[in-house]
Amino acid sequence: MTEPSASPGRLDRHRSEAAERRLRQRYRAERRFQLYGALGLGLATAALAALLVSIVSQGYTAFWQHEVRLSIHFDPQELDPEGTRSPEVLGRANYDALVRGSLRELFPGVEGRRERRQLRALVSSGAGFELRDRVLESPGLVGRRQSVALPLADEVDMLLKGSLRRDLPESERPLSDLQLAWLDEMTRRGLVSRVFNVRLLTAGDSREPELAGIRGALMGSILTILVTLGLSFPIGLAAAVYLEEFAPRNRWTDLIEVNINNLAAVPSIVFGLLGLAVFLNYAGLPRSAPLVGGMVLALMTLPVIIIAARAAIDAVPPSIREAALGVGASRVQAVFQHVLPLAMPGILTGTIIGMARALGETAPLLMIGMVAFIVDVPGGLTDPATVLPVQIFLWADSPERGFVEKTSAAIIVLLVFLILMNLTAIILRNRFERRW
Amino acid sequence: MASGSIPKITTRDVSVFYGETQALFDVNLDIPSNQVSALIGPSGCGKSTFLRCINRMNDLIEGCRVEGKVTLDQEDIYDKRLDVVKLRARVGMVFQKPNPFPKSVYENVAYGPRIHGFAASRSELDEAVVWSLEKAGLFSEVKDRLNESGTSLSGGQQQRLCIARAIAVHPEVILMDEPCSALDPVATAKIEELIDELRENFTIVIVTHNMQQAARVSQRTAFFHLGVLVEEGETAQIFTNPRDSRTQDYITGRFG
Q1: How is residue B223 annotated by DSSP?
Q2: What three-state secondary structure class fits B203?
Q3: Which of A408, B1, B51, B150 could form an S-S bond across to B108 if both were Cys, CB 3.0 to 4.6 Å?
């Protein structure tokens, strides 16, 4: 072996045809990889866009509703023949008769029970309750005549929104020719109007699509998530801080660590069973309540928060800890004044992931009775309640055409709720963010 | 010579184990008051480990075990009744890599006085911060930037900020673990100058890789090799007339 012989060979190494080819190949590989990446991103974006477009295009109509303005005579003979004006009597009166009476005035020519029933069916079956609520609110209405906007039946609403076709043969559509003729007449007289669907946001659930709202489920979700956050965040944080900063490393802590990691992977329905057994059967807490739902979801979220918080605490450089301890800070001071503030962004990210999962969860709630038809809006932690994803499931399962758009509308509300939660987390995270 | 006065720190038969591995073997060393003692030796010789025994920073390391006796003013610092927090307030530390808190310059220095309750009022705290920064030779450079993040300073300034943070607690001893290894020569010179001034009020123990630095700043030098304290004595004697051949080899650059 002498000199690294043949200097032309050395030149060849980087300038030869083969070398050029290798270089081109490397660039091609890089371009190919970038293309795959862009393709993956494009597919994901397209899927998300398709989902959003389909939900919004199906759901936006639910935020509008058709009403008919009827001249209602609050007939004292019908409502309160004895003139007591007591809420008890007024509450029990037959308000549906007022609706029927008003419709008969509108179409005096309609005779026969079947026709009259068909006419009545144009207006929501809940119209009577609306009138009752008005009277109970101001009993002075009795004996007077007032023009009242009442919701139309969901079939009519669907027809006016174009979701039902009127050119089908009579036997195949829910509204008869006669009903269509009356509807057209009402429209011609300017009695039918399209308004913002306040009920969707203020009412509880109902069997009638035109009366159903998501207020109950929304309140249920908010109460449940508050309980979940209130329990799982402090407990999870305390557990993570203790395990990461204070606990001795031994077989017990190893065992606990393995179990926490396993718990994060346990199917959520198992937590529901646990809640049923412990919270309902043993502790005797109320069924269907946000309190219990929140506790069950907190159990489910705890391991997620603990794992995220431990990772975030672990990621804080040890030099910060040493610096604090080096000037004579106690361990608690070092942790709470230096380590935790730096770990907070990561902890919040983990918490929000856990909360988002809890917000979308239905399976464990099944076991504790939160998958239920509940009309009343819950006012407290122990009132019967349901949550948004359950409401979506219940509406999606309903046969009425009117619930299709309601389902999508509920999904929109759930998504908005989620986005708001995430935004809060991002804002909080940016406030805590510190560079070192 | 330190033989006449009582040493500030003494160690007797100190051995340190990381799990099964022994890192230090029966170290006996006296560190005199108000002097700079340098610990030198090749990488992995146990000088940093020894330094961290003096303020019990080794407690933080999983599986680390210290045997033997370390005293500060004749008080056993590994005694069960001794308060570690108090010990670390008396024995401050400056680390190899500058590690200011990700807070303002002011907050970095004020943290110690605040947690130890030195300053009763805001003006006293201000005074303490200014005194420490001045002592660390940093005040003139940062006096308009007290509210900026400590991490925005240059490397040399950060290290002096860490020194200011340490002396703000008024420790009796300052341990320095290769404080200049991440700094350029200009910043190093500043810190060496500072160490010389600090000797007046503090007892300083410094670990260094740089033998010129040890020769420049210290009065006493201890040479560690493979976990054993090979030789210690006055710096001038160690560098001009070492007794042990290993010391001789190391300071003449034959290994390490």
Answers
A1: E
A2: strand
A3: B150
- List, for residues A94-122, the tens digit of each pLDDT value: 888 889 989 988 888 888 888 889 999 99
**What is the complex's ipTM, to 2 decimals?**
0.89
Query: How many Å apart are CA A310 and CA B20, to the nearest integer?
Result: 28
pLDDT at residue B4, rounded to an integer? 53
Interface test with B, best of A253, A320, A327, A338 (most B CBs within 10 A): A327
Q: How far apart are CA B45 and CA A357, in angstroms?
A: 52
CB atoms within 10 A of CB A58: 18
User: What is d(CA A310, CA A317) in angstroms, rounded to the nearest whole number?
Assistant: 13
**Min distance B59 CA to chain A CA atoms (Å):** 11
Instruction: Verify whether the Cβ–Cβ distance B100 to A324 is below 8 Å.
Output: no
pLDDT of residue A380: 87
CA distance A3 to B137: 58
Type of residue at A166: R
DSSP A85-113: --HHHHHHS--HHHHHHHHHHHSTT--SH
Mind listing the pLDDT tens digit for each residue in B108-126? 999 999 999 888 889 999 9
Mean pLDDT of A151-155: 91
Question: Are the Cβ atoms of A322 and B60 closer than 8 angstroms?
Answer: yes
Nearest-CA neighbor of A218 among A397, A63, A381, A386? A386
Q: What is the mean pLDDT of each run of 10 residues along chain B (256 residues)?
A: 71 92 92 93 89 90 90 91 91 92 93 89 92 90 91 90 93 92 85 90 91 91 92 92 90 76
Q: Which residues in chain B are contacts of A325 at CB distance < 8 A?
A: 57, 60, 88
> What per-residue string of b and e applies to B65-98 under the rule 16 or more CB within 10 Å gives b?
ebebebbbeeeebbeeeeebeebbbbbbbbbbeb
